[in-house]
Amino acid sequence: MKAFVQTAIGKFEERDLERPEPGPGELVLRMRAALTCGTDVKLLARGHARIALPVTMGHELCGEVAAAGPGAGGFRPGERVVPGISGPCGRCADCSTGRPNLCERGHADRTWGAFAEYVRVPAGVVAANLHRVPGALEDEVAAFMDPLASVLHGWSRLGSAPSTLLVYGAGALGLLWAAVAARHGAAVVVAGRRPERARLAERFGARFADVERNGPAPETDAAVDCTGDPAVWRLLSESVRPGGTVVLFGGCAPGATAAFDAARLHYGELALVGSFHYGPAEARAALDLLASGAIDPRPLLAERGALADLPRFLAAQARGEGVRYAVRSGA
Ligand SMILES: [Zn+2]
Ligand SMILES: [Zn+2]
After folding, report:
1. Strand ranges for the chain from DSSP E
2. What separation in Å is there between the alpha carbon of 121 and the centre of ligand 1?
3. How many CB atoms lie within 10 A of CB 50?
4. 33 CA distance to ligand 1 centroid (A)?
5. What are the structural domains, with CATH classification, of the chain?
6. From CA 141, how far away is CA 301, in angstroms rounded?
């Protein structure tokens, strides 16, 4: 099968790999659609402590069941599904205290390698975090389950709904944050560097602030970082009102440290809240929002193409041209 494999920092190539065979409890999916993501570009540029190379790239996909391992019951061949990345065990301390997104066992074997004709889904994901795609939902829209579920998790980390929210970063995640917050009645400002994203921000219910030209946005109840830049984390801690919350949503480079104005954190009673990944219930909720059309991510898709278009799409994504690109098997 054709697969795109990262071989070193900054390097990837198309390879002909053995089609994966499902082990006990596992499924193999035929990839129907997979999305490029800023994370793919980041991993390509700097690698990841938990991901050994070479690795087949890509993690946001919709597929159909092609083969089932022993004990992987409940899914029929040909059924369209969207896998979560992790399969929480349901028994550990994290799972039993409502944090299945953090489950170590769930992250020990993850769904990975969406930029290929076939993808292995680990047994833990099949058991706990694999979701049937409702009827008419398009493959590439269903593949937005992963980023949208992450945003739903981040939203839950806010505790209560803010009346004003500053979203820093105007990529897919920032714009999905805008859509979720707007649905909850928050006045949202999306801050970004590319004025051409203003129209998209408006479509997702937000006002756009060009931070390069206008400086930091005004004071807000809550702010969320979608850049993974510690300088932005600090900027946001200075942009929220006393009593405000900053959600640290973007993952930083390995080894990064962050500095804050300690007095402002203390006397302003600011809450800095981490947010990572999502659990199965959030994955299901995300798919429901996509299926009902309550959140329509299609304006985020700059182009759809074949798997062979991936190098061109990743280069365009790295240059920040389009928000997302979709590759389709057999397209
Ligand atoms: Zn992603
Ligand atoms: Zn667990």
Report:
1. 2-8, 11-16, 27-35, 55-56, 60-68, 80-83, 118-121, 130-132, 164-168, 187-192, 206-210, 220-225, 240-248, 271-274, 301-306, 324-328
2. 16
3. 9
4. 14
5. 2-144+297-328 (3.90.180.10), 149-274 (3.40.50.720)
6. 9
Query: CB count, 10 Å around CB of 2?
Result: 16
The CA 148 to ligand 1 mean position distance, Å, reads: 10
pLDDT per residue of the chain (331 residues) written in tens, 0 to 9: 999 999 999 999 999 999 999 999 999 999 999 999 999 999 999 888 888 899 999 999 999 999 999 999 789 999 999 999 999 999 999 999 999 999 999 999 999 999 999 999 999 999 999 999 998 999 999 999 999 999 999 999 999 999 999 999 999 999 999 999 999 999 999 999 888 899 999 999 999 998 767 666 568 999 999 999 999 999 999 999 999 999 999 998 888 999 999 999 999 999 999 999 999 999 999 999 999 999 999 999 999 999 999 999 999 999 989 999 999 986 5
- Ligand 1 centroid–CA 290 distance in Å is 16
Backbone phi, psi, residue 207, to 5°: -95, 150
Ligand 1 midpoint to CA 88 (Å): 18
The closest ligand to the CA of 143 turns out to be 1
The single residue listed with the structure tokens 């993501």 is 37
Would you tell me how many other CB atoms lie within 10 Å of the CB of residue 201? 22
Residues, the chain: 331
State in Å: Cα 150 to ligand 1 middle.
9
Instruction: Tell how far the Cα of 92 is from the centroid of ligand 2, in angstroms.
Output: 4
Protein residues placing their CB within 5 Å of the ion ligand 2 = 88-89, 92, 95, 103
Alpha helices, H only, 158-279: 172-183, 198-203, 211-214, 230-237, 262-267
Answer whether 151's CB lies under 8 Å from 173's CB.
yes
> Token pair of 186, please?
């928050």
